[in-house]
Amino acid sequence: MTHTNASASDYAVSTHGLCKRYGRDTALDQVGLRVPDGAVYVLVGVNGAGKSTLFKLLMNLERPDAGTAEVFGLDTGRAGSEVRAQVGYVPDRQDAPYRSMTSARLLRHAAAFYPKWDHAYADHLTHALGVPPQQRVGGLSKGETRRLQLVLALAHRPPLLLLDEPTDGLDPVVRRRALALLAEHLADAPTTVLMSTHHVHEVESLADHVGVLRDGRLVAQMTREELRRTVRSYQLEVPDGWAPGELHAVELRRSSAGRDVRCTLVGEEQQVTQRLTASGARVRQVSTLALEDAALAFLSEDAS
Amino acid sequence: MTTTQELQGADGRTQRERPPVPRLRDVLRAQLRATGFALRVPVVLAAAFAVLATLNVVLGVISRDGVTNIHAEPSPLPGFIGALLPLAVWAREEHFGAGFLWTLPVDRRRHALIKVLAGWLWMMGGVALYALWLLVLALVSGGEVLPVESLMILSAPGRPSSPVDPALLQTVQWAPGLLIWAVPFAMATATYLCGSALVLGIHRPLRWVVGAVIVFAVASTAAHLASPLLGLGWLEGAPESVVSRLFEGRYGLEALITLRTWSLDTRATLTTGEVVQIWSAVPDLHEWVIAAALWTGAGLLALWAAASRHRERRA
User: Fold this and answer.
1) pLDDT tens for residues A271-295?
2) Is the pLDDT of residue B1 over 60?
3) Which of the 8 DSSP states describes residue A201?
């Protein structure tokens, strides 16, 4: 289920039939991602759904078995270095390179690769995120390493941020500070963000697009408004032996107690209500879902 | 604080100027700094060794009964350093995998080659210091900057049978000239290229080295057993012959790193009871030049192939 309102040229990131296999395991299967320019796109999926693999393919760190990927119109395979110049990347792993270098030295090293590196901004981020500049990278804690990775990704003010679980390993205080800095960053410079996270509620205020990866397939991709409008919780009163009929196709979650049924359904509310009524059910209440609940509904076992 | 520059497109849409990729000289400069940082431990060890060796020579010169008359001579040391240096250059890089190096905005194959170049430049600096050190020692100890060696050549072919009749020996003056000072640079370069190709192209080079030894042992044993059964006399010792040519042949590895001084000379006892160095031939610098060119060429080809393992995916 994918809905996009942008034309092809408006996409900062687009993939076409992207497939990646590791032996017999399929990490990505025919993924057609569309991230509009300027969007904050949140990618949701359980561990092993293929999120990190997708990021690596976009950075051309791995080679797809089929399909193509483009970043700002550049083929990631043919123009890998040009693509990476557009990207600030926070990888899923929290092991920083050059463990014997200090944080400050590593930042100076990275700066040489980005002609637009903003030294003052790097200093600001280092200070704001509490990265110890004179400490060796190998001696940094998991959280400090993550913060250093965030500085490395943001300091050259790239037009695209690929953030793979950017707040993973951060304590709640730093997590909040990091997200505030990200919000400031987005307000300062036009930036497209593609981020994966298990904590959608944390980025609810930033996110304007959501994609859901399940078992390597992009099962949903829509704007935040579409998601809120079309994924709703319905409280029903149903007759004995009630069967949802054709609604089964859009049923995501269902919990029942007696004749009361609560389910999460995808579709325009009016149409869904009409179908429910036609099937004999009485709609008692319809409620909107938080962004996280709406996105996670697609990960439910019985989501179709 | 700079912000990403924006341009207004003809259609009224905001078009963003693409951040550029870094200039190659900036990449080389950055890799020179990073590689130099990675090599600081080997450099400190080498400096400590040089200090100890210098002290030894100086004390010898002062006491006049120790080491004197130091001069340039074919030493395999730069060759060994060249072979091992790539391990230090690439020690901190996760070049097989999604390492930090590959996340940077530089063409991957080019980046790998630039890093190899950075390591080579450091090595050349080190070899230059080594040559300078030798030169200073030669001057301090009263040795010759352009040495002339007296070699005792055995006129009879084959290996000398002990004791050797001095009448069979002929003294020859060997004067390699200025080329002797180019030897450490060239041998270090050739072994560095081959070592870099191994480290960059093979995920676990030590396993391959061990595997090669095992394959050689198996092939040697199989040839030894199969030769009489199949009636193929040439098979007997064929693996050893191949390896021998590779290492001790006219243009083999030994020719590259010692000018064949290991295989051409031997210690022998004369009929007079004196123990001397006897040479079966004079080291041939022309052969060494060819060996150096062959090994350097092979190293460059292998390095290109190894770096190509990491190239960008092309459609």
Assistant:
1) 888 888 888 888 989 998 888 888 8
2) no
3) G
Q: What is the enclosing helix (H) or strand (E) of B16? A: strand B14-16
Q: Which of A209, A96, A23 is nearest to B99 (CA)?
A: A96
**Alpha-carbon distance B124 to nearest alpha carbon in chain A (angstroms):** 23
CA distance B193 to B305: 12
ipTM: 0.88
Span A168-172, average pLDDT: 89
Nearest-angstrom CA–CA distance, B172 and B5: 74
Query: Are A116 and B2 an interchain contact pair (Cβ–Cβ within 8 Å)?
Result: yes
B103 with A189: Cβ contact below 8 A: no
Query: Is A220 domain-assigned?
Result: no
Q: Is A187 contained in some domain?
A: yes
For residue A56, list chain B residues with Cβ-Cβ distance below 8 A: 98
Residues A50 and A81 in one domain: yes
A188-194 average pLDDT score: 92
CB atoms under 10 Å from CB of A104, counted, come to: 16
Q: Per the CB < 8 Å rule, is B2 touching A190? A: no
Region of residue B6 (left: phi > 0; alpha: psi -120 to 50; beta: else): beta
Residues 6+ apart with CB under 8 A from A171: A143
Contact A82 B94 (CB under 8 A): no
Give, to the nearest 10 degrees, the angle between helix B108-141 and helix B77-89: 150
Distance CA B199, CA B34 (A): 18
Determine how β-strand A231-237 pairs with β-strand A260-266: antiparallel
Residues A139 and A231 placed together within one structural domain of the fold: no
Do B98 and A62 make contact, defined as CB atoms within 8 angstroms? yes
Domain that holds residue A190: 11-215
Nearest by CB: B18 against A56, A86, A156: A86
The share of chain A scoring above pLDDT 90, in percent, equals: 59
Band (B230; pLDDT cuts 50, 70, 90): confident
> Within chain B, where are the H helices?
24-38, 40-63, 77-89, 100-103, 108-141, 179-201, 205-230, 238-248, 253-258, 261-264, 285-308
The answer to whether residues A35 and A11 touch, using CB atoms and an 8 Å cutoff, is: yes
Instruction: Compute the Cα dihedral for B152, B157, B158, B162 and give only its sign.
Output: negative
Give the end of a domain, one of A215, A241, A258: A215
Instruction: Tally Cβ neighbours within 10 Å of residue A244.
Output: 20
Domain-located, residue A275: yes
CATH of the domain at A74: 3.40.50.300
Distance from the first to the final alpha carbon of chain A: 10
- The chain B residues in contact with chain A (CB within 8 A) are 1-4, 6, 14, 16, 18-23, 26-27, 29-30, 33-34, 37-38, 92-94, 98-108, 312-315
Residue B121: HSE in the Cβ half-sphere, 13 Å Cα cutoff: 14
Q: Chain A contacts of B105, Cβ < 8 Å?
A: 81-82, 84-85, 113-114
Question: Are A89 and A178 found together in one domain?
Answer: yes
Q: What do you get for the CA distance between the two ends of chain B, in Å?
A: 38
Q: Report if residue A23 sits inside a domain.
A: yes
> Do A27 and A138 share a domain, yes or no?
yes
Helices B77-89 and B40-63, packing angle to 10 deg: 160
